[in-house]
Amino acid sequence: MRLRIPVLVIIVASCLAIASCGDSRSAEAQIAAQLRAMADAAEAGEVRKAADVIADNYRDLRGNDRQDVVNQLRFARLQTGKLAIFLDIDSISLITATLAEVDLKVRFAGIDTGRFAIDGAQYHFILECEQQGGDWLIVAARWTQGSGEPR
Length: 151
Known about the structure:
Blueprint: H1 5-13, H2 27-43, H3 47-51, H4 66-80, E1 82-96, E2 99-112, E3 115-132, E4 135-145
Antiparallel strand pairs: 1-2, 2-3, 3-4
């Protein structure tokens, strides 16, 4: 079975649980810092921590819901072993005080038994985030492989 990298990327990029009550940074700064911290957690194999940032009401245009994304993350982790994740955040835009859109690109490098192999593929994502209970959660995502416009 072929790894569904885009769904894995959603999870990695979905790692947007932010905003502790006393955080004085801007929402954009909180989101960017958390994305990078959560990519580190995903590299370390902390699947549960990554999955916690996907909203219960997550749904994408390809028909995936929260459980589909969580299942793909678990499968990908078992299949790929250790991953190195490279994030390039193009923009974080607040639409309202509780809605944000994140435009980012993600690349993977698989590390398996001493070999370092670059997937070569880049994924371009648009994440729709909603602040729920003080945390920013992913409620939807669009993506494409390469530099095209996410759909």
